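Let's practice the habit of predicting before peeking. Look at the sequence and jot down your guess about where helices and strands might fall. Then scroll down.
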Amino acid sequence: MSKRQPVEAIVEAYELGQRKFGENYAQELSEKAEALKELDIYWIFIGHIQSNKIRKIVSSAREIQTVASLSHAKQIARYAKELGKTPFPIMLEVNAGEESSKSGRPLNEIKALAEEIIRELPELRLKGLMAIPPDTYSDAAHASVPPLYTELRAVANEVGEGKLSLGMSNDLRIALEAGSDYVRIGTALFGSRS
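Done guessing? Here is the structure:
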């Protein structure tokens, strides 16, 4: 995740070989994508989706990992088609701890949403699911892979292309041991955000 990191830090990471960068805010993503348009950066949106900003997100990003509703998926599909960016890669966002402070769908609703998207929206490429577990899940708190991570991996295997985006700087080890395909380790790479 490169949110709230200056473009100079992104350029430095790019020069070291990093090509995928995640952003949480539509405006920040748009500004960075424009400022760094000469670089072959694969921008991933991993933030709360607001309907009025979907066109901006699809315009700047190459992938969205926080799709949690059919209506948002339909809008992404429409703009991806308009912008010539089909099939547009998405992941479904799971609210793994069913926390009111986080977005996403409960894990038990994911397969039904995935089936609807696959059936109705050929403009999208459903890669799998993305989850941010409760903060209590960390490498320090868990010597082995917690059951929640095992369950997320199992459900991801049955969604789209079967990919799982799970794990940040504080739970990197257990996420990788669970079989996560993508990790979001901005703090580990860039240090604390300003």
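How did you do? The mean pLDDT is 95.
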